[in-house]
Amino acid sequence: MTDKQTLRARLRAARDTFVVERPHAIAPPAPYLALLRPGLVVASYIPIGGEADPTALATAALDSGCTLALPHVVSRAQPLRFLEWHPDHPLDDGPFGLRQPHHDRREVAPDIILTPLVGFDAGLNRLGQGAGHYDRAFAAHPAARRIGVAWSVQQIAALAPDPWDVPLHAVITENGWIEGKTA
Ligand SMILES: Nc1nc2c(c(=O)[nH]1)N(C=O)[C@@H](CNc1ccc(C(=O)N[C@@H](CCC(=O)O)C(=O)O)cc1)CN2
Ligand SMILES: Nc1ncnc2c1ncn2[C@@H]1O[C@H](COP(=O)(O)OP(=O)(O)OP(=O)(O)O)[C@@H](O)[C@H]1O
User: Fold this and answer.
1) Full domain range(s) for residue 139
2) Which residue of 6, 18, 68, 70 has the lowest C-beta tally within 10 Å?
3) Ligand 1 centroid to 181 CA: how many Å?
4) Taking the model in full, what pTM does it have?
């Protein structure tokens, strides 16, 4: 089994090539739209590098009366916080080239977490940036629906999950909705 660092490098390269060669959009699939209810908190993210862009998913959540949140991090070691955000609000520059809400925005508990990822497998195990930010957020919000957002080229045969890895309920790619056993 390839180690996680080597896999991350290979998958980031595949993702970046894919994005440059064929511009795609992630459209909201019907099973995602069916989850949205007024008053739910949906955590999205602002993409960096070649990450899949969840803007259309966030817009669909707003159109359904959901509240949007974005992750806020200060360092690799400290856990992320989900802060309330609206497209009219400004974004600050954060670490790792991130764009994130101002640190004193209201902290909220998400019902649905749209999560960026570096890789995923058929069991919907997720490979992230390696800081454990989302692993820890999933542990802190166990009732939240965990939905990965990715390009199809980010799927790999099998990831060897670590004991702390929590599988996703579903992944949305440019080809649509992939549901896990626990969705
Ligand atoms: N768009 C986005 N927002 C996010 C994440 C993410 O993966 N993507 N996070 C996920 O946890 C959290 C931020 N944590 C991060 C932890 C480490 C690195 C990191 O090591 N970045 C590499 C470059 C990665 C690349 O090119 O894709 C670096 O700085 O060397 C990035 C984000 C919360 N917000
Ligand atoms: N629930 C948790 N509580 C505390 N630490 C955790 C938890 N989950 C993961 N970690 C720590 O986070 C580190 C990184 O884990 P891993 O390599 O699986 O990250 P990742 O899933 O790729 O990245 P990320 O979640 O940041 O996108 C590990 O050293 C692990 O000990």
Assistant:
1) 4-174
2) 6
3) 27
4) 0.95
